[in-house]
Design brief:
The complex is a heterotetramer, with 2 copies of chain A and 2 copies of chain C. Chain A is built from 10 helices and 15 strands. Chain A is α/β, with parallel strands linked by helices. Chain C is of the alpha/beta class. Chain C has one domain: 3-Layer(aba) Sandwich (Glutaconate Coenzyme A-transferase). Chain C has helices at 23-33, 47-57, 86-91, 98-106, 149-155, 188-192, 229-234, 254-265; strands spanning 40-43, 64-67, 71-74, 94-95, 113-117, 120-122, 127-128, 131-132, 141-142, 158-162, 170-171, 199-203, 207-211, 218-223, 241-248. In chain C, the strands form 3 sheets. Chain C has a 10-stranded mixed beta sheet, with helices on both faces. Chain C has a 3-stranded mixed beta sheet with strand order 7-6-11, with no helix packed on it. In chain C, strand 1 (40-43), helix 2 and strand 2 form a beta-alpha-beta unit. In chain C, helix 1 packs across helix 2 (47-57) and helix 2 (47-57) crosses helix 8. The longest helix of chain C is centred in the last third of the chain and has 12 residues, at 254-265. Chain C is globular and about 45 Å long. The two termini of chain C are 22 Å apart. The model of chain C is unreliable at 1-18 (pLDDT under 50). The chains are: A alpha/beta, C alpha/beta. Chains in contact: A-B, A-C, A-D, B-C, B-D. Chain A binds chain C through residues 1, 112, 115-118, 178, 189-190, 193, 217-219, 221-222, and chain C through 38, 40, 64, 72-73, 93-94, 103-104, 107-110, 155, 195.
Chain lengths: 306, 306, 273, 273
Amino acid sequence: MAEFVSLADAIAASVFDGDAVAMEGFTHLIPFAAGHEVIRQERRDLTLIRMTPDVIYDQLIGAGCASRLIFSWGGNPGVGSLHRFRDAVENGWPSPLLLEEHRHAGMANRYVAGASGVPFAVLRGYRGTGLENLPGLDGQPTVKPITCPFTGETLTAVAALRPDVTIIHAQQADRAGNVQLWGIVGVQKEAVLAASRAVVTVEEIVDRLTPQPGAVVLPAWTVDYIACVPGGSHPSYALGYSQRDNDFYVAWDAISRDRERFGQWLKSDVQGPARPAADAGAVLTGAGNAVGASSRSAGDAWGGTA
Amino acid sequence: MAEFVSLADAIAASVFDGDAVAMEGFTHLIPFAAGHEVIRQERRDLTLIRMTPDVIYDQLIGAGCASRLIFSWGGNPGVGSLHRFRDAVENGWPSPLLLEEHRHAGMANRYVAGASGVPFAVLRGYRGTGLENLPGLDGQPTVKPITCPFTGETLTAVAALRPDVTIIHAQQADRAGNVQLWGIVGVQKEAVLAASRAVVTVEEIVDRLTPQPGAVVLPAWTVDYIACVPGGSHPSYALGYSQRDNDFYVAWDAISRDRERFGQWLKSDVQGPARPAADAGAVLTGAGNAVGASSRSAGDAWGGTA
Amino acid sequence: MTGTPRQVSSLVPDDTQDTAYTSDEMMTVCASRALRDGMTCFVGIGLPSTAANLARATHAPNLVLIYESGTIGAKPAWLPLSIGDGVLAETADAVVSVPEIFNYWLQPGRIDVGFLGAAQLDRFGNINTTVIGPSYDQPKVRLPGAGGAPEIAASCREVIIVIRQSTRSLVERVDFITSVGYGDGAGYRERLGLTGAGPRKVITDLGVMEPDPVSRELTLTGIFPGVAVADVAARTGWDLAVSAHLQVLTPPSDAELAAVRALQARIPEGAGS
Amino acid sequence: MTGTPRQVSSLVPDDTQDTAYTSDEMMTVCASRALRDGMTCFVGIGLPSTAANLARATHAPNLVLIYESGTIGAKPAWLPLSIGDGVLAETADAVVSVPEIFNYWLQPGRIDVGFLGAAQLDRFGNINTTVIGPSYDQPKVRLPGAGGAPEIAASCREVIIVIRQSTRSLVERVDFITSVGYGDGAGYRERLGLTGAGPRKVITDLGVMEPDPVSRELTLTGIFPGVAVADVAARTGWDLAVSAHLQVLTPPSDAELAAVRALQARIPEGAGS
C-alpha cells in the first residue's frame, strides 16, 4: 500500500546496491529527480533497465552507479549520442558496462511478460538480425526461437523482465495513494506491475483524481512509495504541467562529451549543495508554465546551443 | 476506411453464410440491433464467436443462424440459463450446435493473439481442468502445453482467433469515421483488430470526438462500416446514453424457455414489420433517459417478471 | 445464486422473529466475515458480490472489489445484477480491458482472495460449472461454462466458495473439472504449478468446510446454530469428515442483518421498475 | 538526421538563387513524394518525420502519422524534436501504450509504410544502427541501437530509408544487422517469415536506389539534377548497379520548398528560446 515519503526516503527504502532498477517513461514523464537522488545516495553495481537509456541513464552511468544495462535504444533523442554511455562501452570509463541489448518490441514484451506473471513473451522479430544471438547479462540467451504448437511456424520468445524496483514519474496521486498519469503512457504500467517494489514521484497530490482521457491509473496497493516532486521529470516533461526542455537535451551533448565537464555538472547540479535545493526549488514553482519557464532558464544555464 | 451506411447495408456487405462472426461487448455495449439484422437477413451456418454468448447469441442460435459456437461463458448474466443455447446443445434444436469451449482468459488471449498477428498466445491456466483436452471445431486442439525455453516451465498455448467479421456497438463516431467507446471496454479493440472486416453501430455521429476517460479509440482506417443505431445495444447499455435493461434480461428467461413463445417473440419483435420500425424508432429517442425509458417499456411488453 | 431466499425456520428461535434470518442471509454474512479489510477481492456475481459488498459496508470499508469486466476498486452503491453494470465502471478506481484484467491483474497472483459460486463441488474443492452428466458431448444439463472462474481458482492467493448444500451439488467427484481446487489431493496444485493456495473456505447454507491441512479433503469445521452434523452429512455426496475442533458459528448480528437487507433493498439510481 | 543542412551549390543553377535548395531539402521533398495520401506511415524522428509532415502539409493531407511513442494519427503543427513530444499526444487520434503500438499496430502488418534512417546500409538494404567495427563487444563506435527500427523494417508493408551517401555509410556488408532489409538477397525475407515487403526506396542526398525486382540488390534508379552517376558510384561502398531506366528526379517545386521551409521555421507553441 502506497506510503507518502520524501524522495530521499523513498530511494533509501527501495534502491539497494546490486539491484535491478527500471526507471521508465518514454520521452515523457522520465523520473530524472529520482535518478539524481540515486546518484546522491551513491548506489553502486546497479543493473539499469530502460527501453531508452537516454540522458537520465547517461547521468547514472557517468556517475558510476551502474555495472550492467538492459536496453533497446541508447541515444539522446533528436540530438545524437549518449557520450557517457559510449565512454563506458567503448573505454570502460568510469567502469565497464555489461550490456543486455534488445529492441523496443522485445523490451516492451519482456515487461508485459513480467507484469503478466509468465516467464516469457512471444513475438515476431529478431530473426535475421544480430540481436538474435546476443547473450544476456549472465551469458545465457534472453531471446530464443519458439515453435507455434498449432501452425509449426517459428516465432521468437523473449525472457520476462522482473526488476527489483521500478521508478516512474506521474502527474498526480490522490491522498489514498492512487496514481494517475496520462499523455504518452509508454510502458510504465507494465514496468510497475513487473517489479517487486515501485516508487512514484508525482507533480502534485490531489484530494481526488479527476479521470483524464488516455490515463493509466495505478491503484494505491500496486505502489510502495510516493514522493511529491513537482518538476521531477525535468528536462523531460509532464503533460499538463510542463513542456519538454529541448534546449537541455541539446545542451547535454556538450556537457556530457567531456569527462571533466560532466564531473563539474555532477558536482554543481546533482551532488552539490546547490542542486538538491534546485530540485526542491521545483517544488515551489508547481504546475503549468512556471515549471516550463524554470526548465528553460535551467537549460540556458547549461549554455543551451539550440 | 470507414464507410457510413445503413445497418441493413452494413450487414449485407459484411456477413455471409458460413462466416466466423464475433459480436463483442462485455455486458456493456452488446450489438443487439446488429444481431437482429443478421437474423432478419437469414444468415445461416455461422460460426459465432463471443466470450459471453448471452441473450444476443441465444437469439441468433434460436433463430437458426449458427452451426458452431466459440465461447467461454454461456449464461444469462445474473439470471440463469440460456434456454435456446441449451436446447441446441442438449436437443439439437433448431439444429445441432458444435462447441469450441474455452474460458475467459483463453478467449481474451486468443483475440489478443489475433490482433497481434501471431498464431498463439501463452498463459497460465487450463492445466488440470477438463477444458485442457476439448477439441476445437475442426477436431484439432486449440489448447496445448508449451514449454518456456528459458525456465523449462510448462505453460499453456491457445490458438489465435481471427474472425471473418467483428461487429461491435460504440457510443460515438466522428464524421471522419473514428470510433470512440468508453466505460467497460471489454475485448472489443482486440476483436476488431483480429478480424478481416469490422462493423460498428454507434449511438451518435458527432462532428468531433471529445476524448473521454478510459476510452478506446478505433481510427477510421481500422473499421469498414459504421451505422448509426441509437439504442442499438438494448437491452445491454451504452454508458452515458442508456442503462442496462435488467428487466428484459429477467423477462428473457420466460420468453426463451419455450420454443413457441420464442418463435412468437422472433416474429413480432425481430422479423415482423413492427420490429424494424421499433429498432429504427430507437433512432428517434436518441440519448440518455429517453432510451432508458423506451427500453423499460419494451421490457414491460415482454411481460417483465422482475 | 439469485434464487429466492428460503426462510430457514428451524434456525430461528420462536421468540426472536425480528432477528429471523434466511439461510442466504446467514451464508452471505458468513462469507463477508471471511474478508479482511484492505484485501483485494475478485468477485463473482450473485451471493459472492453481495457478501463482498456487505463486508465493504461493515467491517472492511477498504476492501478492493475487482470484477472480471475490468473494474478495479468498484464501489457500487447498490448491488449490480451483472458483472458489467454501469455502476461498477462509474465508481471504479480504474477500468481496464478484459485481456488486461486477466493477464496483468489476476494471472500474476496479485489478488488476495477470489470468491466463487459452483453448480457442483467435490470432496477436493474442484468446481464444475460446465456440464452435468457423464458425457461432455451429450450432457444431461448444459451449464454456462467456465467464464473467469478457472483463473480465479488458479491464481488468487486464496479462494472462497459459496454453494448450497445438497447431495446433488456436493459430490464425490465432479462430472467435469471446470476450475481446479485440490485436484486429487495433496500436492496436486503444486505439481501443476498453480500459484494460488486454493480453496480456503467453502460456505454453504448449513456450515463451513475447510481443506484438511494434509490431505486437502474438505472437512466440516463450522456449523450454523441449530444445524446437526448429521444433517450436513446427509446432504453431502461423500463421507464427510468432521473437524475435531468443530465450531458453532455466530449467527448474524442485528447490525449485519440490517446491513445486508439495506444493501438488497437499495434500488439502482435511475431505475424505475 | 538533424545535422546542419549543407548547401549543395552544384545542384543550383546560378540564376535561380531564390529557389536554391539544400541536399537535405531535396532529400526531404523526394521522400515526401514517396508517400501517398491516405497511407498509414510509421515515422522515425529527424528527416523521416520532416518528410512525412511535409507530405501531410502538401499532397497527402490524410496521411496517418504513427510514432513509436504510441501516438496514432498525430497532426503536429510544428516538427517534434523527439518521438515523444507533447504535441504528438495532444493532436493524435489515439494514444496507446508502447507494448500496444508494437503488438497490435506494427507487428500484424497493418501499417502501409515505415520510414527509417540508418547509420550504415548495405547492398541488400540491411540497416546497422548498433555498432561500427568488426566486434560487438569492442566496438569502434557504439551507436544508439535498435529502438523500434527492426520491427518497422520487418512488419510495415513497405519501407523507405533515408541516408546520406558516402562510402562509410553505404557499405558492401553492414558490421551488424540491426534491421533486416533483403538479407543476402532474393528469398531471404520469405524464408524468415517477415510479413512486410522490405525496402522500396532508399533516398540519399544524390538520388534514389530501389531493389532489383529479382536479385533485391539496391540499384540506382533516380538521380538528382546536376549529379553524375559516377559521383554516386564513387560515394557507394559497393559496385553500384544502375537501372537501364535511370531517371533524373524533378527538383523541389517552389511550393514544396516553401512548405518545407515553413515547417522547419515553425516554433513550438509556448517555446521561448
